[in-house]
Amino acid sequence: MAVHDTPGKRGRFDSTHWSLVLSAASGSRHALEELCAAYWQPLYCYVRRMGYDSADAQDLTQSFFARLLQKQLLGFADRERGRFRTFLLTALRRFVINEWKRDRTDRRGGGRRALSINLDTAGNEGALEPSHNLTPDALFERRWAIQVLENSVARLRQQQRAAEKGERFDELAPLLTPRADAPSYKETSQRLGTTTAAVKMAVSRLRKELGRLVREEVRKTVASDMEVDDELQRLITALHVKG
Amino acid sequence: MSDPVSCPDCGSQYHPKPSLKGLCPSCLMAQLAEEGLPETAGARTARVPPGFQPPKIEELAPHFPQLEILELVGHGGMSAVYKARQKSLERVVALKILPPEVAEIAGGAERFARETRTLARLNHPGIVALYDAGEAGPWCFCLMEFVDGPNLRQYLGDGNLSPGETIKLIPDICDGLQYAHDQGVVHRDIKPANILLDGHGRAKIADFGLAKLLRPAGSQTATATGRIVGTPHYIAPEQIERPTEVDHRADLYSLGVLLYEMLTGELPVGDFDPPSRKSDSDLRMDAVVLRSLAKDPQRRYQQARDVRDDLLSAASGEPKMSASMGRKSWERLLLEFFLSGASIMTALFGGIAFVESHKGDEVGCVVLGCILWLLSFALARVNVGWSSRWRDLSMAQCLATPILLGGYLVIAVVLPLVPAALVCGLASVPLAAEVEYWQMVGQSFGEAERSSMLTGYWLSTFGTAALASTVWTILLAAVVWRWPSVCTLLFHPAEGDTAKALALTLGVFAVAFLLPAGCGLLYTAGLIHLP
After folding, report:
1. Chain B: closest CA distance from residue A72 (Å)
2. Of the ranges B123-132, B268-277, B321-330, B500-509, which is most confident?
3. Minimal Cα–Cα distance from B45 to chain A, Å?
4. Sign of the alpha-carbon dihedral angle for B500, B503, B508, B509
5. At B139, is the secondary structure helix, strand, or coil?
6. Could you please report the per-residue DSSP string of B425-472?
């Protein structure tokens, strides 16, 4: 399963947030699995940053998610009061400490079904984020924020494709940030055979829609509406602090 | 896997990924935040949490019997603004409604009241006045001055303003900020949306202190807020990195961002170009903008009025900069002391030397000392103040400047007297003077029979010397006037207009002093005769 394609398939629990997913007695394994699959990378980065080599980090992340999916870790964090992000991190920390004490062979899955996360894409990202002078926690937050963006962009692309605007989206996407080296509005408008004003308008709409998707994405990872803005602020800050 | 690249805009390192279309995540997030990520009303759908929904006018009306609420003029994630008419005073006011949680976030009604009391004391034409605040029904409210016009964000749109327009608006903003800072109030969220433009083209700062109010009491981190305070591009670096150390200079950073955006229509992210390269703004404005945007608050402008002064003088072409700007307070003190101290020393040494040679003329000594001190002090200040390079100098170079200036002063005084010295020197060598006179020079002046002969000789010599000096000084002044760079060469910090001023002084000095002196001497010597 290619990780980046997952967000588009998560229509089933879009209106549900993570604490409901976790507490639901049955039938939510898929939902939880997809939520975890969307956010395993930041965790993997965190484990790597703790000093584990690539293989060990993959093992640890895999078995952490396996346990999580079997809901064996729910007692690790008070899910009612937290965010998915902090919950995962707390749970992972405890998990890693416990595993450290445990027999190595026992740690490797123990016959449990592993979460199908594509560790090949993670392997190289072992180099991960260039910001190596960040603390593991800061790196985790940064990675998390990037993940939120990636998931949102993937969903935006999905939407645009569904509306048969996929190619147009690919042309417009580089204009989402005001980069110095991005193609100009004029060039893009010529390529798309439309006017500069239309391109500007389209990009502005895409940004708005992306903003909305980011909000939605964040909403899934916090317990209440009240926390969305705060979580957003944290993510913005996490990306703003330079490593 | 791609190698990490450095973002050309914000400078952060990232891996370009196809999942993000190769975009820099920091920039993307910042862009979304700027476009109202948390507050975009139109982007909300049923699935998105409602956040704060502006109450309907009918809902509000019972809680504000003194007002006639006219219309909703705008709302964001944490507030809604209504246009209303205050019945008793027949005036239009703006009613800002904040959700009930604000009182909780702000740390209870008491803190809300305390903070708003402070804000109500801000009374300045550059600040949107707060008339009243409190709780009404489930909401908190602020009753404010109604500014009939767009905010700067709407006014700017996607473009920039002309330098002229910028120059017109910035002083208002600076005045308002300076006033508030003097009262100990920091805005913390200066951005185009918070600058309102009234019908007369004046700028007013809105939402003063609201950012602080919306921050939980006792909380020191900007991240622990109930809403997004500001947008990353306008926030000073220390507001994120060291929230405990935030002071009024954070506003001055935001002001710098604002200024940059007004001039160029872009935000100063990454390795940004100075405004003059992106627009037709004056080169001198670059210095003002860049100093406002210094990462280190110590290197930034320290007061809003300095920004205004420098901007105005940059616009009017007067290169006036305050020398102590952007330096630590002890550095400033040392500089001031040194600038004044050095000239006091000059005066002291000059005075002592004079007293030694003119015993008994104490009053004259004091007067001369004072003149010397004033002269050197003024010259030092003027030179230091007018030097555009001064700000770029290290502390050591700054401290050396007064000593150099002492040297320049000596040169300035000696220069006009060079021909006089030459004439006198020539007069005393045998080739130029008669042998008889020369012999007398070498001998005692005390002998009576030689004194009358000597007087005539010296008078003619001095007369010639004074005339030569006058001509020389006038020539010198002309040269300096025509080629100011000559003056720069001689007096390093004096440039352009300063050099012209100096040339003028030299000319006046020559005409007013040297010429009459020469004529007087020649007349005494009997070489010229008055009718």
Report:
1. 30
2. B123-132
3. 8
4. positive
5. strand
6. HHHTSTTTS-HHHHHHHHS-S--HHHHHHHHHHHHHHHHHHHHHHHHH
The pLDDT tens digits of the residues spanning B483-528 come to: 766 665 565 555 556 666 667 777 777 777 777 777 776 676 666 6
Cross-strand partners of B195: B205
Cβ atoms < 10 Å from Cβ of B489: 11
The tokens of B12 are what?
């952060």
Which residue of chain A is at minimal alpha-carbon distance from B20? A150
CB within 8 Å: B228 and A229: yes
Evaluate whether B67 touches B85 at the Cβ level (below 8 Å): yes
Mean pLDDT of chain A: 71
Tell me the residues of chain A between 110 and 129 that have a Cβ less than 8 Å away from chain B.
124-125, 127, 129
Which residue of A180, A211, A241 is in closest CB contact with B9? A180
pLDDT > 50? residue B196: yes
Nearest CA in chain A to B227: A229
> What residues of A are in contact with residue B222 (Cβ under 8 Å)?
233, 237
To the nearest whole angstrom, how far is the Cα of A84 from the nearest Cα of chain B?
17
Does A132 lie at the interface with B, CB-CB under 8 angstroms?
A: no
Helix axes A40-49, A29-38, angle to 10 degrees: 50
Residue range A155-196, pLDDT digits in tens: 888 888 888 887 888 888 888 887 666 677 788 888 888 887
Calpha distance B266→B275 (Å, rounded): 9
Answer yes or no: are the C-beta atoms of A168 and A147 closer than 8 Å: no
CB contact under 8 A, A226 and B44: no
Q: What is residue B344's three-state secondary structure?
A: helix
Tell me which of A92-101, B7-16, B284-293, B490-499 is least confident: B490-499
Can you read off the two tokens belonging to residue B424? 């006198």
CB pairs under 8 A between A and B: 157
Tens-place pLDDT, residues B103-148: 565 555 676 777 788 788 888 999 999 888 888 877 888 899 988 8
> CA B173, CA B251: separation in Å to the nearest integer?
11
Which range has the worst mean pLDDT, A29-38, B83-92, B262-271?
A: A29-38
DSSP B230-285: S-TTTS-HHHHH-GGG--HHHHHHHHHHHHHHHHHSS---SSPPPHHHHSS--HHH
Any idea where the domains of chain A sit in the sequence? 3-240
Tokens of B342: 């050095």
- A174-195 CB burial, b ≥16 within 10 A, e <16: bbbbbbeebeebeebbeeeeee
Query: Which residues are within 8 A (CB) of A219 and not within 5 positions of it... i.e. 6 or more apart?
Result: A17, A225, A228, B48, B49
pTM: 0.42
SS3 label, residue B346: helix
User: What contacts B425, CB < 8 A, 6 or more positions away?
Assistant: none
Residue B189 annotated to the active site: yes
Domains in chain B (CATH in brackets) are: 5-34 (no CATH), 61-145 (3.30.200.20), 152-316 (1.10.510.10), 329-392 (no CATH), 413-524 (no CATH)
- Would the CB atoms of A177 and B27 count as touching at under 8 Å? yes
What single-letter DSSP state applies at residue B188? S
